[in-house]
Design goal:
Elements (H helix, E strand, L loop, with lengths): L2 H9 L9 H16 L6 H11 L10 H13 L5 H15 L2 H16 L6 H13 L4 H15 L2
């Protein structure tokens, strides 16, 4: 199943329809970084992200497509810069706000990094930084990890 289909399953959920624009933007920024972490995002991959989040109730000053393009460009500048990356993850955590949304965002970011079935060290470090900045409790992390393992076993 394509990653855009998996992620759009979440973003089409009624709970995601109630997100503020700040939460929408934080989620898109996180997913853009998860997509860009390996160093390059081509136009096709950018379209995948737009399709994945198209069901969000987007009310930004810029179109969703423009925001995704800018978020991916901004994400590219974070690669290799530990301090900026940590500040970014903390900022996204604050933008997401609610515990349930931080957990869902972590799950979606992990799905993005695992979509190529090759979890590199930089991606592992990114996921650890999310867990820390998002203050995901160990018991919740265990549940989410179990879901990721189950989902990627096929």
């Amino acid at each position: 199943m394509p990653i855009s289909t998996i992620l759009s399953y979440f973003t089409s959920n009624s709970a995601f329809k109630k997100l503020s624009q700040e939460q929408n933007e934080a989620l898109v920024r996180l997913l853009a970084y998860a997509q860009a972490i390996d160093g390059h995002v081509d136009a096709g991959e950018q379209k995948i992200l737009v399709r994945a989040v198209r069901d969000l109730r987007w009310q930004g000053a810029h179109s969703l497509e423009d925001f995704v393009a800018r978020a991916i460009a901004d994400a590219g500048s974070l690669v290799g810069n530990r301090e900026r990356k940590q500040a970014f993850v903390r900022d996204v955590a604050a933008g997401l706000g609610e515990d349930w949304l931080r957990e869902e965002a972590y799950y979606m970011a992990a799905k993005m990094t695992l979509s190529d079935r090759d979890l590199q060290e930089v991606e592992q470090a990114f996921l650890r930084e999310i867990v820390e900045a998002f203050a995901i409790r160990p018991e919740r992390l265990e549940v989410i990890t179990g879901l990721l393992i189950r989902d990627n076993a096929f």
